[in-house]
Amino acid sequence: MASNQRKVAIIGTGLVGSSIAYCLVNQGVCDEIALIDINRERAVGEAMDLTHCADFTPWRTYVQAGGYELCADADVVVITAGGPPKAGQTRLDTLGASAKIIESIIPEVMKSGFDGLFVIASNPVDIITHYTWTLCGLPRSRVIGTGTTIDSSRLKTLLSETIQTDPRSIHVYTLGEHGDSQFAAWSHATIGGKPLQHVIADNPTRFSNLDLDELVEKTKKAGWEIYNRKGTTYYGIANAAVYIIRSIFNDDQKIIPVSSVLDGEYGYTGVTAGVPAIIGRAGIREVVQLHLSTEEQQKFDHSVSLLKQYMSSIGLES
User: Fold this and answer.
1) pLDDT, tens digit, for every residue of 106-127?
2) At which positions is substrate bound (predicted)?
């Protein structure tokens, strides 16, 4: 009988990697998880701890720790390993350290015979996603970064607190870099299908103090607000990664704002940025091209320009 086992390998079992594994176990997304870390004992400990969840979850997930050979039959390899930011740094400032880590990981994964999809959560995620693509040789559709998935969720949550509507009924994306140059595509924002601008216009008194620019700034700073209080973030980004993985396994064809290698979309080729894309079993089926306003396109251009500048610092040319 043919096996339909769903397997995820996670490289990096720090707080983000272990949180992704925990989400996978509790949500029953896959049948098997492989944990890989330079600190082998840390990975073994995480695997043991997660295995002890089996009696309390609706699904049984087999969890093991080991080396890169465990990637050979994985459907998805998740990479969380990277250089953490120091005080005063941006995500982009961690590029040098993260690039060196990726250079050591990708050849080992591919040597195992891996032929699945990559999901990248390492920062700066847009450039690391692009670098992974150049190193692995897989089609661009099979290398996906978490991108602005978490940022879009943060923005919807902040907006929901003002609109007093469940964030799942709000549709708005942040695009561009997962970082300080990201922007919101307000021209496409809807609340229950109604354009946000119409909602504001129809309720001038209720929303007279709604400052959309302020919401975007709060979105950009949200991760740092958490970082300054607890040292890092992991629950939100872990759920964002698992949201993408679940959409892959279930062939949901769900539109998610992810880091995607662009090939003409939005006027760019050879650069990776956060854009909405249709995600299914084969990875990125299609990048959704929003008709941005002139101001939004200028913000996208600025974000891409910044990403290209940092890409060139590690020899990546568009």
Assistant:
1) 999 999 999 999 999 999 999 9
2) 91, 123-126, 151-154, 233
